[in-house]
């Protein structure tokens, strides 16, 4: 680091303070936001941090600058945050950032127009990012990582400030999404419920008013929640919305959406095309799709075993497990088709023993009772039309459409 | 005395310190919590901070009060004994020679008390770990006594074990002793779950059942945290996998109230060694079979793999899956082939006569075929699940043949 004189340090700090208070008085959010973006590591913030290390008494400077005495509550802790961040002391940096953010929120409430919305967004994002860093730091030194939880509380306050009738409410969805990210990370996903209720059922918001970007993020997270709760039809709606309105350039985001949408589609009997799976590098689903197409139960189980960790982490494992029924259906259909080729008049009668043999050929050991049980399930769930003649150990298929498609009805319902 | 640092995530717990031997004559000063951000001392902040999953409402200690070190040498503090004698507030298990106004240090057990203020709690009211272990042993022995109806025993042990957990938490005991005590208490709740469900016909039990499950889940979640805090290497504790499997098995069927999130969400947070352990694989498989309706595999693997405690948890659910099986068989069968009950009863591991009863309870008629064997005519339209629940027939092989 090049030598920094006291004079130069003093100049940098007062320069920053002036820019900040000028931005506030001229209500210029575009200028204000980068001044708050602590983790952006911009050159100007870094040089400011260096200055703060040299010139230790920044509080006095803040107090001195007449115009910024109102903003002192924001600026003093903010400067300490910038300094701590540069020194890599994230837990300390978070604590002072929260102080600054609370003070900022106070002022934001008092400003009549939502001019500072972009700056508030920046702060909301910074709070979350810094809390995550702080928790990592705390956990690695054996301490209790509770900063992200605190960030959640702060963001709820922000949300509350925006959930009103005025023009400020357009920002609520962005903050809601930040909250979702926090809760998903913490695993306290049930806390999303009250946020969702505010957005969707309280009469404050008109969903269409929100920016598209935020709507996509919102639908992505709420869609995921529906997947966890196995409401596949709603999940399909939300995730499809997110996919369709996602910006075409954001390939990574599309992949994230597809990661959840594909299992949902599979549950309602819709198979993705191979090129889709390949384009977005979702190979693990490729094997699942293959298994369903071929009626190969062994392949499905193998895929589930091989990618167990990944599927469990993303929470789709239980969804994919249910697809076994589709695989059974396909297997029996293949047997039926083969029989039809040999002798069309007798094809609709499938001996349970044949199914046992077919499964044995796939190295799966199932006795005739279990096969009968599975066929009974398939009939019950309308994946097979027909009946089981128990005494003759035969399943008699309906002559018309013996293997109905799911038609949008989720499997397992 | 060695300090063991617990990582203390989420519970806001400090590094563990084994509780002192009450016979020690040295007065150890109370350790206070490190100073906190003033914003976080209000009750509201505390509620926001605490993770609902871990919230043991028996933990009354406010974040600012210091940890206590219990010195009470009896199962019940003398003060409380005297007070309850005077008020004649003694449970049947605490009465000396049946006298409702007399107890003894060997019979009285400290009650659970949901006090609002922690200011008045004295160390002489709190039992040290050795005393708590002795108390727990005494309570568990009572569970096996045949003298009183099970609900009465359950009620008493339920309350008194809650008090034990309260004492543990006030002293912040989170080491191996806590683990073994929590495991014992979970076992009590598991056995209770089974026995309360089997006491069919007594109307008031459903709320007892419900409360028991609630408490069982709370204990399990705290136990899981304890396992984490005491983890030495990456290996699991001896019983850890089995106790995790209990949590999974509680999700069988829809009636049982869940603690908020779905299983999918819960699995996300678990480590792979736990998820892939034998016990967990078994529990996860059982859920899969039950949801799919694969009653054949369900009963086969249950018989082959379930531990006694796992079976305790699953047994109350068996009739629901049997009813589902009956429903499937009825729907998918051939009108001219009534389904033989003997055959089905073997698969469903129930006595043939009980299966017949179950069919009737579900609104279906049974018949006798040409060979004189009982059968279920299929394609009946009046199937319905009984509104008042099931009688809970146990797991049995064939009539009169021991498993």
Short description:
Chain A has 413 residues and is an all-alpha fold.
Description:
Chain A has 21 helices and three strands. By secondary structure, chain A is mainly alpha-helical. Chain A has a three-stranded antiparallel beta sheet with strand order 1-3-2. In chain A, β2 and β3 form a beta hairpin. The model of chain A has no long low-confidence stretch (mean pLDDT 91). With 403 residues, chain B is mostly helical. Helix content of chain B is 46%, strand content 2%. Chain B is built from 15 helices and three strands. Chain B has helices at residues 43-49, 78-87, 129-143, 150-170, 176-198, 205-229, 240-249, 263-269, 272-275, 278-292, 295-305, 308-314, 318-332, 341-347, 352-361, and strands at 339-340, 367-368, 374-376. A three-stranded antiparallel beta sheet of chain B has the order 1-3-2. In chain B, α3 (129-143) runs parallel beside α5, α5 packs antiparallel against α6 (205-229) and α6 (205-229) runs antiparallel to α7. The longest helix of chain B is centred in the middle third of the chain and has 25 residues, at 205-229. Chain B is globular. The N and C termini of chain B lie far apart (50 Å). The relative contact order of chain B is 0.08. Residues 1-55 and 398-403 of chain B have low confidence and may be disordered.
Supply database-style keywords:
heterodimer; A: mainly alpha; three-stranded antiparallel sheet; elongated; B: 403 residues; mainly alpha; 15 helices; 3 strands; disordered N terminus
